[in-house]
Amino acid sequence: MPEGPEIRIMSDFINQNTKDKTFTKLYHVEKGNIPHEQLVNSEFTIQSDFNGKELIFSINEKEKTYNYSVFMGMSGNWKLVDTKDWNSTKYIRLRCDSKCGKSLLLYGSYMGPKFRIGGFTGVKRGPDIVKDFTNFKSNVENNLHKKVFNNPICEVLLDQKYFNGVGNYVRSTIIYYMDINPFLSARLAIQNHTQLLEMCRDVLITSYNLNGGQLQDWQNPFDTDCTKFKEWVFYQKGKSVKDSTGRTFWFNEKWEKFNIYQKCN
What we know:
Blueprint: H1 4-18, E1 23-30, E2 34-40, E3 45-51, E4 54-60, E5 65-71, E6 77-82, E7 92-98, E8 102-107, E9 114-117, H2 133-141, H3 153-156, H4 168-178, H5 186-192, H6 196-209, H7 227-232, E10 239-242, E11 248-251
Antiparallel strand pairs: 1-2, 1-7, 3-4, 4-5, 5-9, 6-8, 7-8, 10-11
């Protein structure tokens, strides 16, 4: 579930809660909250960044830096707890113990988080839409001739090679506020609606500013209110249909007559 805005929020949470702390141990924790492997056993600091749906988690030792790519899955999240109480949180994947008696935890149950030093093999991500909008826009416009853009815009918006950070609720919200036919080919949608790429950026920023997609399993780690977000987001509203990838997509019912999936649902 966590999409671009939620990854950015979790990165903020990590940075805010670790900037004044020195850590001494990093554990990889297996199912059942069993510390499986001690990855680091020396003093280090922590820093985080975001790249679309990918969270970058950096361990900075005195002379070395290790960058972990973290994919949050459907339920991944972070929290800061007293080290003595670390085991009261279920489904932990990473545990970082600090000198001041606090532990930073990466946890998640259903289709939970995964991590890997240096990034995931074979994953191709385009430029981050928020941080690098100019290159994001060029990457899309320079590849419009490719076959993938024959597909409907509602599906292509999920392609992380071009729309890094856009997930299920974000695509529905982009299309709703852009007020375009979701079943139009991506090429025509982008060519005929010149503000579409800007809307991708604006929806991601608005979601972040409204505390992120607190839907289903994910909750903002800052424990903030989500009332305004739920009023704004286009999710479980209007009509729904499963696209060719099996993902449920919500859209304005006025586009139902163009629904190319109706015979398959």
